[in-house]
Amino acid sequence: MRRPRVILVGSILYLALIFGVMLWRGISIEPEWVVLALLVIAIALGRGRTFIADWGPFLILFFGYEAMRGFAAKTGFAPHDLSGMERAVFGGTLPTLTLQHAFYRPEAVGLQDVVAMFFYFMHFPLPIVVGFVFWLRSREHYRRFIGALLFMALLSFITYLFWPSAPPWYQFNEGVVPDDVAVHKILNETVDKFWGASYVVTPIYSHLNPNQFAAFPSLHAAFPALAAVYAWSRYRALAIGLVLWTAAVLVSIVYLGEHYVIDALDGFLYVAVAAATVEAFTRWRGRRPPSTPARPSA
Question: Which of 101, 113, 226, 248 is the most exposed place for a label (fewest CB within 10 A)?
Answer without folding.
Answer: 101
